[in-house]
Amino acid sequence: xxxxxxxxxxxxxxxxxxxxxxxxxxxxxxxxxxxxxxxxxxxxxxxxxxxxxxxxxxxxxxxxxxxxxxxxxxxxxxxxxxxxxxxxxxxxxxxxxxxxxxxxxxxxxxxxxxxxxxxxxxxxxxxxxxxxxxxxxxxxxxxxxxxxxxxxxxxxxxxxxxxxxxxxxxxxxxxxxxxxxxxxxxxxxxxxxxxxxxxxxxxxxxxxxxxxxxxxxxxx
Length: 220
What we know:
By secondary structure, the chain is of the alpha/beta class. The chain is 40% helix and 23% strand. The protein has 8 helices and 13 strands.
């Protein structure tokens, strides 16, 4: 069972998150003493950390920067702020994802699952035909040819790969990629799909992603 550490100073929200995570099959624990948050993050043994940006007497982004000097445990930032600057800063400090409040519980769980899959152990790497898929590195390798995927490309590929041979709708993909209407952009999804297709083609997998009009996409 994956362990998730919650760092959130609002008691009601912290308790709500703990219940959601436990009901979703995770082991959840929470920080309640904010005097040495970074130390607790390092000692928690968590598989993933949910970190609020606004904390008593400190700043989540600064905590993340300090934590990243020693640890690579995946971190998803939680914030009530929706500024692109906040997202850019969080990602530049080493956040693996960024979720704004109020969050959609289903979408939050999907994004937690996506981040954990990207951090799967190398021994758990999967094979797409005769190519090795590394969620840790975000790459697909066929022979000596390696293609590095962006975060969004990896999320798209992983969802298609998890449902290989089945139709995955555009709504399914956008739900996993973005968690609010501000970032749901049909054109942006098309661009990511096109780039992913190009990288798969460069690996020799021409027409790997089939478009089903008015339905979605199928990975073959």
